[in-house]
Every structure is written in C-alpha cells, then in structure tokens.
Amino acid sequence: MDFSFLSSINYIAVVVSSLIFFFVGWLWYSVLFGTMWAKELKRHNVVIKEPSSDVIMKKMILTFSANLLASFAMAELAIPTGSCCAQTGLILGSIAALGIAVPALGSVFIWESRSLKLFLIDVGYPAIGIIIAAIIVSVWQ
C-alpha cells in the first residue's frame, strides 16, 4: 500500500486546527450554550454526573483525538479537491459538515426523539469545528 499521500499534509496545521476545534467545543458547551444544553438534556431525562478529574481528563483526550481525526480528514480532503484558500476551505468544510456530520447525527436524534433545540446545539459544535478545520488546513498547506 502506498502511503505517500501522508507526506503532503501540513501536520502543524492539523494540530492547530484541532486545538481551535477543541477550544470551540469548550466555548460552545460552556459560555455560549451550556445552560441551554443542560436544560434540554434534563428535559430528555439525561443526567450527566459530576465526573472525577481522571474521567474529565480521559474525556478531554478522547474529544481532542476526535478533533484531530476530523482535522486530519479535512487536510486529506483538501489536497485532491484543490482547496487552498479560505473560500474553498469554507466550501469543503460546509460540504463535509452539512453533508456528513449533520445527517449522521440527525439520524441518531430522530431515533432518540430528541428536541430540535438539542439537535442544533449538539450538531452545531462539530459542524462549526469541521468548517474551521477545513479553512485552516486549506489555507495553511
């Protein structure tokens, strides 16, 4: 198997976009929508217990790893699509977010009978993060 495609990626851009993606998540679920998100979860009888510091650290590592994977995927898609500026990064990220992430999460929400408000909060974070990652890795090749 040929792995030469891995040498074309700017790994610094992937890490930076992952860090920004992670920061967006913190901002999203605390300052911007934290209270509304907690109320919607409670309305659906979802209780999130106060985690220990070890559990929080594991969740943060797993979340960052997921962000890293998404940023890597955007960097990999930017190459064959020729995405090399903010405008094409925005288009690439929007297609990935609206064409893959939103429908994938949407089908879960449909079967769980969750509210539209909770869906928009929960899908907004990865959609925005994917778009930002696509812009960064497109510009910074």
Secondary-structure map with pairings?
Layout lengths: L10 H22 L1 H10 L9 H29 L4 H27 L3 H24 L2
Detailed description of the structure:
The chain is mostly helical and 141 residues long. It has one domain. The chain is built from five helices and no strands. It has helices spanning 11-32, 34-43, 53-81, 86-112, 116-139. The longest helix is centred in the middle third of the chain and has 29 residues, at 53-81. The chain is globular and about 50 Å long. The mean pLDDT is 94.
Q: Tell me the helix content.
A: over 70%
Tally of structural domains? 1
| Ends apart, CA distance between termini | 24 Å
Helical segment count: 5
H and E string? HHHHH
Summarize the structure.
The protein has 141 residues and is mainly α. The chain has one domain (10-139). It has helices spanning 11-32, 34-43, 53-81, 86-112, 116-139.
